[in-house]
C-alpha cells in the first residue's frame, strides 16, 4: 500500500490545466479544467465521476491520442509503458484471438510464449477463433490479454466491466487484481461504479461534472482480501455524505 | 436447390429461344442449335480461341492497371481531404465521359495501337474503382485507429492487419463490377481500332449480317467472363468475408 507522495518517483504524472473542444459552427465545450494526478507502481487508482464528465477525454490525453490541451504528461505517453483496455474491446474482427494478442506486441516479441497468459485468462480453447464468436465478456478478456502480453508498467482500463453480468465482471476484476499482485503493475481504471472501485482500488480520484476538476483523492487502506460487503457499503456511505454530487447514497 | 432453379430457368430460356426461332426468319434469329454448330466450327478453325484469347489478354492487362491505380487513387482520396478536393472534379469528368469518347480520343492521341486500346479500357474503368475505394477508405474504423496508435503498430502491421482487411470487401466489389465493365468496353475498343479480338470478329460478322456468328461469339465470351466471376472473384469475396 503506497500512499501518494510516499513513493519517490511516480511512473507517470498527468496535469491537464484545460481542455476545450472546438468545432466549427458549435459552441466551444470545456471538458477538463484542472485535473492532475500521479500513478505509482503496484497501485490501483480508480478515476470516478459522472457520465460525460471528461474521464474518457482525460484517458485520451494520457494515451497520447489527444495532444491539443494545456498541461503536460511526463514521461511522454509513448515512453511510459502504457497498455490500454478500451471499453469496447477494439479487437481486429478479421484476425484470430491469438493473432490479436500477438499483433499488440512489438515485432521482435510476437513469437513469445503466451500459453501461460491464455491459460490464466481462460482463453486457451479460443485462441484460433475470431472475436465475433465470443461474448462481450470474453472479448474484454482478450483485450486484457493483449494489454497484459505487453507486460506494461501501467495498465489503463476504461469502464472495463460495464454491461457485463455480475459473474463475468467479478471474474474479470479478479484477473486484473491478480495481474497487479503478480507483477506489481500500476493500474488506472476509469469507472462510474463506486462499489466496484471501493472493492479493488488503493486510491479513488473523484472528478466533478464537466468541466472535469479533481475534487478529492481518497486513499483506501484496508487490504483487498479483507474488504467485505459491509465494509464496502460503509465506505460508500461515508463517501456519499462527503461528496453527494459524485457518489450516490 | 438454387443451382436447380438456375438450370431450370436456363433450360426454359433455351426452349423459348428454340421455339421462337422456328417461326422467325433464320437470318435474324438463328436457333440455338445453329449457334452451337457455328461455335464448334469456329473453334475447330482456331479463330474462336485466338480472338477470345486476345480479348481476354487486353481485359487482363487493363484490369490490372485500372485496379492498381484506382485502388491507390481511391485510398488517397479517402484519406486526404486535400487530394479529394483537388481530384474530385477531374474524376467526375472522366466518370461521366462516354466510353466511346474516351476510346476515340485514345486512338487519336496515341495512334491505332495496342497501347491506346489498353489505355482506353483502363481509363474507362479506373474512376469507378477509385470511387468505390474512396468510400472504403473514408469508412475506416476510428476506434481501431486509436487502438493501433496506442499499441504503436508499425506501418507494415497497420497496412496488413488494420487497413487492408477493411478495404478488401471494397476491392472485391470494385473488381467484380470492374471486370463486367471492362469486358463490355473492350469490345467497343476492338471494334473501333483493332484487327483482332472478339469485338473485331463481331464487327466483321455484322458487316456480313451473320447473326449466328455475332450471337455465337458474344455467348462464348460472356460464358468466359461469367466463369471468371464464379470461379475466381466470388470465392475471393467469400474468403475476405470469412471472419463475419
UniProtKB/TrEMBL annotation, chain A:
Keywords: ATP-binding, Nucleotide-binding, Transport. SMART domains: AAA. Residues 14-234 form the ABC transporter domain. One of its GO terms (molecular function) is ATP binding. Gene3D superfamilies: P-loop containing nucleotide triphosphate hydrolases. Pfam families: ABC_tran. InterPro entries: AAA+_ATPase, ABC_transporter-like_ATP-bd, ABC_transporter-like_CS, ABC_transporter_ATP-bind, P-loop_NTPase. PROSITE patterns: ABC_TRANSPORTER_1, ABC_TRANSPORTER_2. It comes from the Bacteria. Belongs to the ABC transporter superfamily. PANTHER family: ALIPHATIC SULFONATES IMPORT ATP-BINDING PROTEIN SSUB 2, TAURINE IMPORT ATP-BINDING PROTEIN-RELATED. This is ABC transporter ATP-binding protein.
Automatic annotation (TrEMBL), chain B:
PROSITE patterns: ABC_TM1. Signal peptide: none annotated. The keyword Transmembrane helix applies. Keywords: Cell membrane, Membrane, Transmembrane, Transmembrane helix, Transport. It is a multi-pass membrane protein. It is found in: Cell membrane. Residues 52-232 form the ABC transmembrane type-1 domain. The chain crosses the membrane at residues 56-78, 90-110, 204-228. Belongs to the binding-protein-dependent transport system permease family. PANTHER family: ALIPHATIC SULFONATES TRANSPORT PERMEASE PROTEIN SSUC-RELATED (PTHR30151:SF38), ALKANE SULFONATE ABC TRANSPORTER-RELATED, MEMBRANE SUBUNIT (PTHR30151). This is ABC transporter permease. It comes from Methylorubrum zatmanii.
Amino acid at each position: 500500500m503506497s500512499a501518494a507522495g510516499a513513493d519517490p518517483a511516480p511512473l507517470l504524472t498527468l496535469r491537464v490545466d484545460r481542455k476545450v473542444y472546438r468545432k466549427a459552427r458549435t459552441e466551444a465545450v470545456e471538458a477538463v479544467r484542472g485535473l492532475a494526478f500521479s500513478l505509482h507502481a503496484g497501485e490501483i487508482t480508480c478515476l470516478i465521476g459522472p457520465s460525460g464528465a471528461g474521464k474518457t477525454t482525460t484517458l485520451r490525453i494520457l494515451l497520447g491520442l489527444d495532444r491539443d490541451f494545456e498541461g503536460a504528461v511526463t514521461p511522454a505517453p509513448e515512453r511510459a509503458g502504457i497498455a490500454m483496455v478500451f471499453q469496447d474491446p477494439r479487437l481486429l474482427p478479421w484476425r484470430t484471438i491469438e493473432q490479436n494478442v500477438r499483433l499488440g506486441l512489438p515485432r521482435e516479441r510476437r513469437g513469445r510464449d503466451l500459453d501461460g497468459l491464455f491459460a490464466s485468462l481462460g482463453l486457451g480453447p479460443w485462441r484460433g477463433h475470431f472475436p465475433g464468436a465470443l461474448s462481450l465478456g470474453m472479448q474484454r478478456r482478450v483485450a486484457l490479454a493483449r494489454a497484459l502480453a505487453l507486460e506494461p508498467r501501467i495498465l489503463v482500463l476504461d469502464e472495463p466491466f460495464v454491461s457485463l453480468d455480475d459473474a463475468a465482471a467479478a471474474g474479470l476484476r479478479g484477473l486484473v487484481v491478480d495481474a497487479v499482485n503478480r507483477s506489481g503493475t500500476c493500474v488506472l481504471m476509469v469507472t462510474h461504479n463506486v462499489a466496484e472501485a471501493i472493492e479493488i482500488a488503493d486510491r479513488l480520484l473523484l472528478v466533478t461534472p464537466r468541466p472535469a476538476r479533481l475534487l478529492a483523492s481518497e486513499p483506501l487502506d484496508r487490504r483487498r482480501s479483507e474488504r467485505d460487503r459491509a465494509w464496502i457499503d460503509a465506505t460508500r456511505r461515508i463517501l456519499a455524505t462527503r461528496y453527494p454530487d459524485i457518489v450516490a447514497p | 436447390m438454387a443451382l436447380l432453379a438456375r438450370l431450370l430457368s436456363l433450360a426454359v430460356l433455351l426452349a423459348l429461344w428454340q421455339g421462337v426461332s422456328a417461326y422467325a426468319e433464320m437470318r435474324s434469329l438463328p436457333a440455338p442449335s445453329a449457334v452451337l454448330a457455328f461455335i464448334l466450327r469456329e473453334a475447330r478453325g482456331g479463330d474462336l480461341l485466338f480472338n477470345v484469347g486476345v480479348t481476354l489478354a487486353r481485359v487482363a492487362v487493363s484490369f490490372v492497371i485500372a485496379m492498381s491505380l484506382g485502388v491507390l487513387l481511391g485510398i488517397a482520396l479517402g484519406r486526404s481531404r486535400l487530394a479529394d478536393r483537388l481530384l474530385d472534379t477531374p474524376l467526375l469528368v472522366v466518370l461521366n465521359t462516354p466510353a466511346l469518347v474516351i476510346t476515340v480520343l485514345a486512338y487519336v492521341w496515341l495512334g491505332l495501337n495496342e497501347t491506346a486500346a489498353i489505355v482506353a479500357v483502363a481509363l474507362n474503368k479506373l474512376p469507378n474503382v477509385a470511387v468505390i475505394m474512396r468510400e472504403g477508405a473514408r469508412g475506416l474504423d476510428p476506434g481501431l485507429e486509436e487502438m493501433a496508435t496506442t499499441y504503436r503498430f508499425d506501418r507494415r502491421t497497420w497496412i496488413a492487419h488494420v487497413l487492408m482487411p477493411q478495404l478488401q470487401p471494397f476491392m472485391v466489389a470494385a473488381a467484380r463490377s470492374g471486370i463486367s465493365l471492362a469486358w463490355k468496353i473492350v469490345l467497343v475498343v476492338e471494334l473501333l481500332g483493332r484487327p483482332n479480338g472478339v469485338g473485331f470478329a463481331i464487327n466483321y460478322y455484322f458487316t456480313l449480317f451473320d447473326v449466328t456468328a455475332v450471337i455465337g461469339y458474344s455467348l462464348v465470351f460472356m460464358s468466359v467472363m461469367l466463369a471468371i466471376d464464379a470461379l475466381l472473384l466470388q470465392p475471393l469475396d467469400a474468403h475476405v468475408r470469412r471472419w463475419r
